[in-house]
Amino acid sequence: MTYSDFRVSQRTFQSTEGAIKYIDKGKGDVILLLHGVPTSGWLYRQMIDKLAQNHRVIVPDMLGFGSSDSPKGYETYSEVKHAERLLNLMNFLQIEKWTHVFHDAGGLWTWELFKIDPHRIKKLVVLNTIIYEAGFKPPIRFKKGFLARLVMWSYRNGFTTNSMLSGLFKSGITKNTLEKEDLEGYKTPLLEGKTNAMYYFFTRTCNTLPKYKDTLQKIELPVAVVWGKNDSFLKWEPQKEQVIASLNISEENIHLLDAKHFIQEEQPEYIARLIIEFLQ
Q1: Helix axes of 180-191 and 161-172: crossing angle, nearest 10 degrees
Q2: What are the strands, taking DSSP E only, across the chain?
Q3: Extents of the domains making up the chain
Q4: Residue 43 contacts by C-beta under 8 Å, 6 or more apart in sequence?
Q5: Topology annotation, domain 3-139+209-279
Q6: 229, 259 in Cβ contact below 8 A?
Q7: For 67, which DSSP code?
Q8: I want to staple 22 with a disulfide (CB 3.0 to 4.6 A). Which of 60, 197, 228, 275 is the partner?
């Protein structure tokens, strides 16, 4: 699949802050696939068809990422705002409950969603996501201001776009075999100027990680973890005991992969199979 094909298959939800693009494929119980920073729904392209064989699969590009709009405004990209827009999307689609699969910063938006409306999600599938400070090792942190804006400018104007993505996937994939066609889905949004949400994440979230311990301890749902154990950005070992206790995760639902951060690029078919088995 080319990135152009992916975009053609996307639909549009008009939020109050801007257009949000999303995939809606298949029929049956709903699975939502949520990306993180600096990716988009493109991250799940190799899993969608497999999951959509017996489920309805929703894959949004959150505001500021992928094909969605990237309006100005710093607090527009707060964790709370992302969660509110995600709920509004699901309300627009008339989806009352769903299985929630999430990665990276998608964890922050998920925990905020639980604060707002904790009864919408039936099951959780955690993929290398942000949970506790002990496991959070972001490769980039900036102070808000000129330097961070200059870096974002260089990403969207082609000066450091290739080198940033090359470094990201060199660190985030065990063996980077991504083809030019694959990289288009990550590079194109940046060259279109989609850096406002990244600016918020790297200058606010990475410096002051929100605390969700109380929120997590209130979640009483079946939870599965699929985690790349060699991830240098989000580490499982330093936080595993706290995560397992907070979310009451059964040992049989913890799957550690011989992979790094972008597990959807390394083992997409296996992850899709684990999700299907968990739902059964």
Answers
A1: 130
A2: 11-14, 19-25, 30-34, 56-60, 98-104, 121-129, 223-228, 254-257
A3: 3-139+209-279
A4: 35, 103, 262, 264, 265
A5: Rossmann fold (3.40.50)
A6: yes
A7: T
A8: 60
**Do the bridges between strand 254-257 and strand 223-228 make them parallel or antiparallel, or are there none, so unpaired?**
parallel
- Joined together, the tokens standing for residue 150 give 């200059």
* Prediction pTM value: 0.98
Tokens 């309805």, residue located: 56
Give every CB contact of residue 11 below 8 A, 6+ residues apart in sequence.
21, 22, 23, 24
Per-residue pLDDT of the chain (280 residues; tens, 9 = 90+): 999 999 999 999 999 999 999 999 999 999 999 999 999 999 999 999 999 999 999 999 999 999 999 999 999 999 999 999 999 999 999 999 999 999 999 999 999 999 999 999 999 999 999 999 999 999 889 999 999 999 999 999 999 999 999 999 999 999 999 999 999 999 999 999 999 999 999 999 999 999 999 999 999 999 999 999 999 999 999 999 999 999 999 999 999 999 999 999 999 999 999 999 999 9
Q: Is 142 helix (H, G, I), strand (E, B) or coil?
A: coil
Rounded alpha-carbon distances, angstroms, from residue 275 to 64, 122, 192, 233, 246: 27, 13, 33, 23, 21
Q: Where are the alpha helices (DSSP H) in 93-222?
A: 106-116, 146-156, 161-172, 180-191, 196-200, 213-217
